[in-house]
């Protein structure tokens, strides 16, 4: 998407019922999974314009990773949080440094998912959480997927195999 389109989409995403309901589900699940007794190191991979990144701050030290410079600038302006303009293939963080790594509808955009998943596994602390949301079922593929530059859709089995191949032990799918 073009930067202006990201700004418009970010405004739309903030108010539309679909995205509001989706946020409630994501954060309900995260609230159930995460410890609340300490501040966590949190990374939002593919943070886009930062709508969900801003909300991750409630868990601790949140920062975003976005591969497109123009979009990372928008996210920084909107959130005031630290942003890294980098690829999911080469995340500029230490091994085992993140308590929570989120990919909210990001994995389907990454051509080499195996490489990105190995890199994400590298930075998640032992006992940490990697949280993924992905579009379901290839048979639902539509023009919207092409416009959004999706590479694939997922079944539970496909996602589980991809995560296991990268070293994750999926807890909930």
From TrEMBL:
SUPFAM superfamilies: S-adenosyl-L-methionine-dependent methyltransferases. Pfam families: Methyltransf_11. One of its GO terms (molecular function) is S-adenosylmethionine-dependent methyltransferase activity. Residues 43-132 form the Methyltransferase type domain. Gene3D superfamilies: Vaccinia Virus protein VP39. This is Methyltransferase type 11 domain-containing protein. It comes from marine sediment metagenome.
């Amino acid at each position: 998407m073009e930067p202006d389109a990201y700004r418009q989409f970010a405004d739309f995403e903030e108010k539309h019922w679909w995205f509001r309901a989706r946020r409630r589900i994501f954060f309900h699940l995260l609230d159930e999974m995460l410890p609340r007794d300490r501040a966590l190191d949190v990374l939002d991979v593919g943070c886009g314009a930062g709508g969900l990144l801003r909300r991750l701050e409630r868990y601790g030290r949140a920062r975003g990773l976005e591969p497109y410079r123009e979009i990372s600038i928008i996210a920084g302006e909107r959130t005031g949080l630290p942003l890294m303009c980098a690829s999911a293939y080469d995340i500029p963080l230490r091994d085992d440094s993140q308590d929570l790594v989120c990919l909210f509808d990001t994995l389907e955009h990454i051509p080499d998912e195996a490489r990105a998943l190995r890199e994400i596994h590298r930075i998640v602390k032992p006992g940490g959480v990697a949280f993924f949301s992905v579009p379901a079922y290839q048979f639902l593929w539509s023009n919207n997927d092409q416009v959004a530059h999706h590479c694939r859709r997922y079944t539970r089995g496909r996602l589980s195999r991809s995560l296991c191949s990268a070293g994750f032990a999926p807890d909930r799918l």
